[in-house]
From TrEMBL, chain A:
Protein name: Ion-translocating oxidoreductase complex subunit B
Organism in which the protein naturally occurs: Robiginitalea marina
Residue span of region Hydrophobic: 1-27
InterPro entries for this protein: 4Fe-4S_dom (IPR007202), 4Fe4S_Fe-S-bd (IPR017896), 4Fe4S_Fe_S_CS (IPR017900), 4Fe4S_Ferredoxin_RnfB (IPR050395), Elect_transpt_cplx_RnfB/RsxB (IPR010207)
Keyword Zinc: no
Electron transport keyword on record: yes
EC number: 7.-.-.-
Sequence positions that bind [4Fe-4S] cluster 1: 50, 53, 58, 76
Chain sites annotated for binding [4Fe-4S] cluster 2: 139, 143, 149, 184
Cofactor(s) in the UniProt record: [4Fe-4S] cluster
From TrEMBL, chain B:
Family from the record: Belongs to the 4Fe4S bacterial-type ferredoxin family. RnfC subfamily.
KW Ribosomal protein (keyword) present: no
Record gene name: rsxC
Lineage: Bacteria, Pseudomonadati, Bacteroidota, Flavobacteriia, Flavobacteriales
Protein known as: Ion-translocating oxidoreductase complex subunit C
Signal peptide: none
Subunit organization: The complex is composed of six subunits: RnfA, RnfB, RnfC, RnfD, RnfE and RnfG.
Residues that, per the record, bind [4Fe-4S] cluster 1: 368, 371, 374, 417
Pfam families, per database record: Complex1_51K, Fer4_10, RnfC_N, SLBB
């Protein structure tokens, strides 16, 4: 009885020792050296694996950061300047500051203003319906409303508004990773600077048709009238293919263009209410409740 | 036992409502809209200017490359605009707008061209003529014919197949053409045989067109080398690969062409166009279009000038009936639903199908029940349910490994699916992405 117990204990001990030896030899023999900095940097990164930086995931971005001499061109949009500074500190390299950006939806063709002229019964996916045809409305540039951007967003920063049929960006949650921008087959979503208190002015339309056709398809379409060009004091607006575009780098958020736009296709977000009496109602859409701060 | 392809296939209700209606000439429209991209390949380049007067058959857009085709003025008149108009998918495409000169003689309804049997041209000349006169495959794919007829030195060709299958339900354009222009088509076949130097040609016709089969049998009794084959009625027998398999028991390799097994396939409509180009010096300017639908007052077949708005055609059959929910360009299986009836007829428009409300809706998709119906009917031996799932999950490379690119988009899988799953929509999308990935790699 004692013998058998003793035998098994000895056997187990021997087996354990042999296995340990094998493992030790193997781990020594096949050891792969890795820069410990990579792990350090990876820990600093947000770990969202969103690919917003251009690398497939945070790990490969960390490898890139450690491996590249000049990292000023690399940027993690999710972590922003704060994380990039920490990374720079850990690596002893220089990083460039970047203004935080946020996704904006450049279409306000809700069901009300953009009537449906056909019916789509295929799979609910923008990519597929864009491949099949130009969408349920007469605007071939606008939002298809099947929510590929919402599916692509890994941060729960988007949802579909049931009444308008358009996606909405929750700006506080948006990390500007850019996944929605790539997911949208119509290139409606743009990353624009957040400015202070998330003030933004942009043209909420991509329709390149001539005014009449655009207006017929959608009541809030940009008709290319160039009125905004004339009032802009900074020449921040350019007109191409019957479509205005406001350059965020030049725009000073003076809101003059918003007032003159006859179709209300220029969107302003999060501005305090106007002091003077408004002549025309201002188009507001897809924005979170504005935070009125009268000292702006 | 009638010949057919062994793998898969379906037999939807035929509904050939217009098979006994002679082809009528549609009056020349007041304005034609001629798109510059009516074929597979590079769009043609416009060579006319606004306000320029054009004669019937004048080249108005020149072929933009090797896989491209010339486009000719279908009517005599004045170019009023070079504009963008909506295509079948609702996107804008470049097109040439010509206002018809109603006084011009060539626009008047002319008598049919006389049958001309002797072939006087040399093979090289014939091929050049086919290329110059804008002939493309009229079966629906609109592949430029001269590319198909250019036999590379390392390939051997021993058989010409003429596709008179018309397996799409409802459509009767090819059927009527075969009945009315049988002798011309036979001359066209002889032209092709002469040009390609082949001794053997087979006309494949499905057995629901007995009259056409009998007519051709009668006419070819004396003709050497031309055979008529009656085929079992089965969709998609009009697909090149299926037809080659059915007639010759030769399997076209995947990603290959019929030429790899020594065959060239041409549609009867194309052959007739080639006859007109070679014998009568007449470029491709019109085609037969079936305008059909169960609720239409007078569904018919028409000779239609390229560029005629589809609304004109609908008017000619007594207008769109009440309760219409969908208008399709092409047949019910592979056709495309139209977003607007302002779309013009192009070289590839074989039919216009008007579908009433109760038949126009798709079923509500539910989960795959693994019944295997789609696998059973796929004529290419693919697994549509798997391809759809892979595409849905974004696994495009895996889908490419499962041969998604060999799908011929016949839609049999979507047709039989008891869960109404949109199999073809996903597969088509997967193919687009797989193609992009492929081209990015190379």
């Amino acid at each position: 009885m004692t013998d058998s117990i003793l035998n098994s204990v000895i056997l187990m001990a021997l087996l354990g020792t042999v296995a340990a030896l094998v493992l030790y030899v193997v781990s020594r023999r096949f050891h792969v050296y890795e820069d410990p900095l990579i792990a350090t940097v990876e820990d600093l990164l947000p770990g969202a694996n969103c690919a917003g930086c251009g690398s497939p995931g945070c790990r490969s971005f960390a490898e890139k950061l450690v491996g590249t001499e000049d990292i000023s061109a690399l940027f993690c949009p999710v972590g922003g300047n704060a994380v990039m500074h920490l990374v720079a500190e850990a690596l002893g390299k220089e990083v460039a500051e970047k203004d935080p950006t946020v996704a904006v939806i450049r279409c306000q063709g809700s069901c009300e203003v953009r009537p449906k002229t056909s019916e789509y019964q295929g799979p609910r996916s923008c990519a597929i319906s864009a491949l099949i045809y130009s969408g349920e409305t007469d605007c071939q540039y606008g939002c298809l409303g099947d929510g590929d951007c919402v599916v692509a967003c890994k941060f729960d920063a988007m949802y579909m508004d049931e009444t308008t049929g358009l996606p909405v960006v929750i700006t506080d949650k948006c990390t500007s990773c850019g996944m929605c921008v790539t997911a949208c087959p119509r290139n409606i979503i743009e990353m624009r600077p957040k400015h202070k208190r998330d003030l933004k002015i942009f043209v909420g339309c991509l329709n390149e048709e001539k005014g009449g056709i655009a207006k017929k398809a959608c009541a809030v379409a940009c008709i290319g009238c160039s009125k905004c060009l004339d009032v802009c004091p900074k020449d921040a607006i350019n007109m191409e293919n019957n479509l205005a575009y406001i350059d965020p780098a030049l725009c000073t958020l003076c809101r003059k263009c918003v007032d003159v736009c006859p179709t209300h296709s220029i969107i302003e977000t999060n501005f305090p209410p106007r002091k003077i009496k408004e002549v025309t109602p201002v188009a507001t859409l897809n924005i979170e409740p504005a935070n009125p701060q009268n000292d702006a | 036992m009638l010949r057919t392809f062994p793998k898969g296939g379906i037999h939807p209700p035929e509904n050939k409502l217009t098979s006994s209606k002679p082809i009528q000439k549609l009056p020349v429209p007041k304005v034609v809209y001629v798109p510059i991209s009516q074929h597979i390949g590079i769009p043609a380049e416009i060579v006319v200017e606004v306000k320029e007067k054009v004669a019937t058959g004048q080249v108005i857009a020149k072929s933009g490359g090797y896989v491209s085709s010339n486009i000719h003025a279908p009517v005599a008149g004045t170019v009023t605009k070079l504009d963008k108009i909506v295509d079948t998918r609702g996107y804008k495409t470049q097109c040439i707008v010509i206002r018809t000169d109603l006084k011009d003689e060539s626009n008047l309804e002319a008598a049919d061209l006389p049958l001309k049997k002797e072939i006087t041209m040399e093979p090289g000349e014939i091929l050049q003529r086919i290329s110059d006169f804008g002939i493309v495959g009229l079966g629906g794919a609109t592949f430029p014919s001269h590319v198909k007829l250019n036999i590379k030195a390392d390939k051997t060709l021993d058989c010409l197949i003429i596709n008179g299958v018309e397996c799409e339900p409802y459509l009767t354009a090819d059927h009527r053409l075969m009945l009315e222009k049988a002798e011309e088509i036979l001359v066209g076949i002889r032209i092709l045989m002469h040009a390609l130097d082949v001794r053997r040609a087979i006309i494949g016709i499905e057995n629901n067109k007995r009259d056409a089969i009998d007519l051709f049998r009668k006419l070819t009794r004396e003709a050497p080398g031309i055979q008529i084959a009656a085929l079992k009625v089965k969709y998609p027998q009009g697909g090149e690969k299926q037809l080659v398999r059915a007639l010759l028991k030769r399997e076209v390799p995947k990603n290959g062409l019929p030429l790899d097994v020594g065959v060239v396939v041409h549609n009867v409509g194309t052959v007739f166009a080639i006859y007109q180009a070679v014998q009568h010096h007449r470029p491709l300017m019109d085609r037969v279009v079936t305008v059909t639908g169960k609720k239409l007052e007078n569904p018919s077949n028409f000779w239609v000038k390229i560029g005629t708005p589809i609304s004109d055609l609908l008017e000619a059959v007594g207008g769109v009936p009440e309760g219409t929910r969908k208008i399709v360009s092409g047949g019910p299986m592979m056709g495309k639903a139209l977003k607007s009836t302002d779309v013009p007829v192009t070289k590839g428009t074989s039919g216009i199908l008007v579908i009433p409300g109760d038949e126009a809706s798709r079923g509500k998709p539910s989960s795959c029940i693994r019944c295997g119906e789609c696998v059973e009917v796929c004529p290419m031996g693919l697994e549509p349910h798997l391809l759809m799932n892979l595409t849905e999950k974004g696994m495009y490379q895996a889908a490419a490994r499962e041969d998604i690119m060999t799908c011929i988009e016949c839609g049999s899988c979507s047709y039989v699916c008891p869960s109404h799953r949109p199999l073809l929509d996903y597969i088509r999308f997967g193919k687009t992405i797989a193609k992009q990935l492929e081209s990015n790699k190379g």
